[in-house]
Amino acid sequence: MSAQQLQFPLAILSWNLPPSMGYEAGTPIAMDFLVHNLDVLPREYSLHLKVEKDGELVEERTIAVDGHESFWIIKMSIRGLYVEETVEVTDATLSIQLLDVLTGEYVDSVSTLLYLPMGTLSWNLPPAMGYEAGAPIAVQLLVSNPTLLPREYSLHLKVEKDGELVEERTIAVDGHESFWIIKMSIRELYVEETVEVTDATLSMHLLDVATGEYVDSVSTLLYSGVWPPGTVTWEMALATFIGIIVFSFLAALVVGIARGE
Known about the structure:
261 residues, mainly beta, six-stranded mixed sheet, 10% helix, flat
């Protein structure tokens, strides 16, 4: 292979989005970029957003970075960028292209397939929470049907402990195992559930009855201790122990001074 056939990239673009993602048109998309300048000179770049649907280009624009249409990166360096963008369609391909301003050529790109989810699920529980086995858990759920047709859903509760499924059941809504949501609407649900174990993962899954597939899920870690598992390191424990010793010493010193010793 001749030297003329060897081509090395002068820049690399990467981001945080997966190859495909559920997306409702008009909602903001948080994008984290890493732009690598592999050249031995500073270079000026710009980011261009493109959306293709059914083989046609339906959206195209330059993404502003710090209020400017282009940005510089010094030689052999990496720059992180954060932007929020909205797209007016779904079931389309969103791509971001990195333009080298000097050459006027696109040097790299990233893309993701945006598709309309059959339903979305959110709740009021945190990612981890202290829990005593058997105690009731008040759960507030928001179920969204973003499609253009009414859809029937059901909610399934699952509990996993030490890698095993220890509880599983369908959650009744108004006394029924499933419920309907009209097109492009949101329904709020309130349920109280108990779990017979702790130090386990509680999850709720939204099932689309027509397809028989889970379309979304939420989960939380139930723990019995003071802190969630894995959040207390030996450094934290040592620092706490030293802090107790220092506090005890200072307290004894103050008492001694007060007594005139």
